[in-house]
Each structure stands twice: as C-alpha cells, then as structure tokens.
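INTERNAL TRANSFER SHEET
From: sequence group
To: structure group
Subject: Hercynine oxygenase

Please process the attached sequence and return the structure record in the designated field. Keep the field labels unchanged so the import script can parse them.
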Amino acid sequence: MSAVPARHVPPPDVPPSEVAPSGADTAVPAVVPSPHPDTAPESCAARALAALEAARARTLGLVDCLDEAGLTAQHSPLMSPLAWDLAHIGNQEDLWLLRRAGGRPGVRPDLDPVYDAFLTPRADRPGLPMLPPAEARRYVAEVRAQALEVLEKAPSDAERLTRSAFVFGMIAQHEQQHDETMLATHQLRRGPAVLHAPPPPGVPDGTSLPPEVLVPGGPFTMGTDDDPWALDNERSAHRVDVPAFWLDTTPVTAGAYAVFIDDGGYDEPRWWHPDGWAHVRRTGLRAPLFWRREADGWTRRRFGRVEPVPLDSPVLHVSWYEADAYARWAGRRLPTEAEWEKAARHDPATGRSRRHPWGETDPGPEHANLGQRHLEPAPAGAYPLGEAPCGARQLLGDVWEWTASDFAPYPGFEAYPYREYSEVFFPTGSAGAGAGGSPDYKVLRGGSFGTAHVACRTTFRNWDHPVRRQIFAGFRTARAADTTAATAPATAARRPEGA
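Return from structure group:
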C-alpha cells in the first residue's frame, strides 16, 4: 500500500514464547473478542453515509485547489495524475455500489479498462484516454447520487457484501486511501503551496516521558473477526504469544535521525541490509526525502513550503531500509508487526484487544493526528489522551510506522470480496496459516496525519516496497526485555532532552 497506496478495487469476477518473563500478562485461554461498532442496519447505513460524505469532501478539496494543468500533469512517475485518481474513485464506486450492491447497470462501464490499476502502471497512466477534470467531476457526482439511492434502501444483512453496510464502508475506505495517495502527490508536486492547515498541537507543558516502555510478555488477540468494516487481511482473530519487549515511547524524531546522519550512518555498510546498502550506493541517498542541508542546519520542502526541519517531531519520508539501518546503529531493531499491535491495543487489565489504543471510541482531535487535520506530524510526546495501556504515544496517526515483518496472510485468511486487495501481494502459494511473508513488501502500521479515521485502527495493515520514501512513513525501535539498553550516542539520540 502506499501513502496509503490505495488498492485497486477490480471488477467483480510469531513463534510462541517460552516461559514468560516476570511481569508477564495473565494468560488468556482463547481469543478474546473486543467490542465493535453498532451493527444495526440503520446505524451502519448512517455511519456509511457519514463516511462517504467525509471522503468526498476531502477528495474535492484535493482537486479543487489546482487548475486543469495541475490535475492532468504527472508530478512523479511514482504517482498517477490527480485527474486519474478522481475518476478512478468514481469508477470503483460505480462497480461496487451501483452494479454489485444496487444491481444497476452502472453509469460508465466502458471506463473500466481506463481506470483498472492492474492494467496500466502509474508511470504509464498519462497516456490513457482519461476523462478531463470537469467531466470527471460530473461522473463522480452522478455515480454518488445513485449510490446514495442504493444506500437509502437500507443495506440487507441477508447478503455478506451488504451486511453491516460493509461494501459502503469498503468504498469509503478506498476513497480515503486514494485521498492519502493524492496528498502524497501534492507533496511531490513542484509549485506554490495550495493546501493549508493549522499546526498540530504541541507536547503538554511539564510532560516528562521515559524513552521506552515495557510491553509485558504473554498472549494477546491479534487481528479481528468482529469489526464489520475490517478488510480481509485484518482477519482472522488469532492468539499470538509475544515475549516481553521494550518499545520507544514515541516515534523516532528528526533530531535523533540527524544524529545518525552526522555519525556517518549513510557511509557505514554494517548498519544496512545488503539490499539497502546496494540501494544507497546506487541512488546516492544521504538523508530523508525532501531534506536539504543548509549552512545553519536541515531544511525540508513540505507542500510547497521550504522550512527548517522540526527536530522534535517524528522523522518522515524514510524507507524501510533507512529505518532498519537507524535501528541497528542505535543498538536496537524494528518491532515486529505482532509486537506493534500488542503495544497498540492489548489491555492487560481486561485481557481484551482494543480497537484503538485509548479504547473503543472513534478517534477525535484529542486522540491522534489523523485525517489531514494538520499537514505534518505533531511533536513527539503529543496526544496524551491517545496513549496506549503500555504507555506508548502516537501509535495511531502522525506517521506510518515501518515494522520488521514481511506482509503475509493470517491463519484462516480468505480473500474477500476480491483477490487484488491483499492476496496478490502475498508470496506465491502463501494463503493460509503458517505462511511466510513476501520480502518484496514490508508491513507498516498506525496511519499518518494523512490517514482518515475510517481507514485507521489498531488492526489495519499497510504494506509497501522497502525502498519507498514518498509515503508518510517513520518508525520507532524496540529491543528484547532481556537485553541491555544501548549506550550513547545511539540511545541518547532517540529523543531530544525533555521530550
């Protein structure tokens, strides 16, 4: 996934721990379900309407700020023209809400080949017979009008696709995923600033956080069976036994990462995965994407503005290889996907796995930096009300967090309602329990400041190539509970004094 790299919606056709260390969680005998949103048809329909309207308002905000040339240009070969994204959003809604859920003929089935992401790579999409921006706007509006008519009939729980308004939630998530991808395109675009947002909140006065928190060992419930809008790779819920480990309280900051650079981090092959080192030598990487060293320090380009890098905020626009190299330099490692999820959602007091670090309530502006409310991460240590039971902060929002894990299916995985969302990204023949992951895709967790809350929860899984840097990605590091913390300068560099 990227940015989240929105998944195309096609036409319908950890080893068990040994003896738990002292302080381990109380063992639970089986998978413990977590509370989930109201699944009454009327409540789900209202939730779907709100999610669809929020997504569309955001989509239009991302395209209405540019002229036709800005919408049809390809700002990077990594991304589609924004006009393609806009009509693709409408095309998937046409396919799933009108044709599949509504049994209607659809508005423009003839557009399917143009907006099929698997038929045409992003770099080649400018050559497609795309709808001009004005026509694309009319198309998505006409599709949406009919989709709301389908929704008004109250989705039937008799069919799996419409039960709990799943397909409407899936399409709302799809649109928001594309919106985050479009936001990444805006970041890659050259030109004056056209997007504006207030700065994120700072760290409350008097905050004093430990550099790391202990996550006790023991079993927890990973994944979900009962979240009605969870996507296929989040299922099924299964028990995972995770040994105790230490985790950074917040994501690694830009200031800490700058110390790694100044210490020759990009010049020392021992810190790098072999493929990562080859990539560094081939591309000449020296710093995170959009950073530039000036005489008086680092600057960055952010949505058309050039400004000093905020050293107290999470580092952004780093690849998995860079995150992994920093962790090795710091005498630590990246957390596994299971470790990350346990830290984010397991409540040792109840044995339950929460939907969000703070509980079951939907994210609010007091909990996390989500939904493009701000156009950058908040300083490390912000959002105390979003703290997880283990004491870690900013596990949702701010930056996607690279994990050590390859993307793989959970036990009992079933592709639904189509293979192309997850299954085609797994290793060949890997569907099912016990499969290894694909080294071509590393898992990211937690969402960024550009992720909408409808597509952000502690079970949500993102994935991308380990070289990707245009996505809003950072990381935090971990170490086993029975290891000694690294010595300076690495440990001291992880967080500025007082954060």
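Handover comment: Residues 2-35, 487-499 have pLDDT under 50 and may be disordered. DSSP finds ten helices and 14 strands in the chain.
Transfer complete.
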